[in-house]
Amino acid sequence: MSFPFYIARRYLFSKKSTHAINIISAISVIGVAVATMALVVVLSGFNGFSDLVASFFTTFDPQMKVVPATGKTVPADDPVLLKVKALPEVEVATESVEDMALAIYRERQAMVMVKGVEDNFDSLTNIQSILYGDGDYKLHAANLQYGIVGIQLAQNLGTGAKWQDYLHIYAPQREGQLDMMNPEGAFVEDSLVSPGLVFQVKQSKYDKDYIITSIAFARNLFNRQGELSSLELRMKANVDIASAKKKIQEIVGEKYRVLDRYEQQADTFKIMQIEKFFAYVFLTFILLVACFNIIGSLSMLIIDKRDDVVTLRNLGASSKQITQIFLFEGRMISLAGAVIGILIGLLLCWLQQQFGLVRLGDSSGSFVVDAYPISVHPWDIVLIFVTVIVVGWLAVWYPVRNISRRLTAF
Fold first, then answer.
1. SS3 of residue 94 by DSSP
2. Dihedral pair phi/psi, residue 68, rounded to 5°
3. Beta-ladder partners of 131
4. How far is 54 from 331, CA to CA, in rounded Å?
5. Is there a contact between 150 and 198 (Cβ–Cβ < 8 Å)?
6. Are strands 197-199 and 210-214 parallel, antiparallel or unpaired?
7. How confident is the model at residue 118 (pLDDT cuts 50, 70, 90)?
8. Per-residue pLDDT tens for 323-375?
9. Rounded distance, CA 169 to CA 173, Å?
10. How many C-beta atoms lie closer than 10 Å to residue 346's C-beta?
11. Distances (CA, A) of 87 to 75, 82, 90, 93, 233
């Protein structure tokens, strides 16, 4: 144990001649602990909402999606894609054609995203778990083409879960010129019937805009025969997704992009990460303000121990060692606040996870979840600990060095 650290440790726990110094030191520890606790709870709250959103997407989005790097579609018989389908890691592969169209039901209309998929789409995703109604999951039968709409889109169009008339879908012609005398000729028209089901992902992006139908309907509507806009994949159990993604990317090269679930929703998660970052920055500033209490505590301690400093100088202690004594004092206060704050923060997170102490609304079922979701990520705890230590040490370095130098010079 070094000499400065030994003296600093004794100063931290010993009684001071002025009782207020002990009180200010305790307040300093509490201030750092509260700021640290806030960092743990707030960042874990952002993680909870992020994980909650991700859980919604997993019922609709595939584990991986191969999309063209440029353009909307590619040939479905591309040898590269056939090679990806044949990989031993792939359990289910589904071709998809997806594009914008106009949906009209009776007197109502809306711009929609038509997603045409193969019959094994229910094996690719967990869509069966988000279907509501009294019908059966089916995309086509004989000459009939079925459409499963999002729950908000069904409300907007007034179709309900099971509509009686045809749902008309219009898409622009890909080829030819517009005849102003016959504007309707510029569109391809087709219609869907209802299987008696709607889906609810609990995300407006899907529930308000999407229609799921057969890939044959989508190819005919958008004139994409023999093409696909994405190849959606589900990997076998125990397959490492990151390794499989890297392997597939090496196979498809620069012509395609391989997207995991988070990359498929990159905009949503980037916004949440930016919000989390700004929350971290603001709370770090609060932590910095809390560290000013440490400066005040150390300033009073230095004055209180003026006689001790003279004695230490007479015993041969250098100015550097005396400065280190008070620096260690400030660092131990920061460390104590960091440890206490992290432990209290983790305790509060555990209580929220187990008992849902802080609720989102007064009535059950008003929101997707009843209580604020919490998810503790280990690397966030490491970041918080390092942040508190660095901010605390930097906050006391210059003031303590300046005050102790004046005192030793005196």
1. strand
2. -65, 140
3. 199
4. 39
5. yes
6. unpaired
7. very high
8. 777 778 788 888 999 999 999 999 999 999 998 888 877 666 566 788 889 99
9. 13
10. 16
11. 19, 9, 6, 10, 11
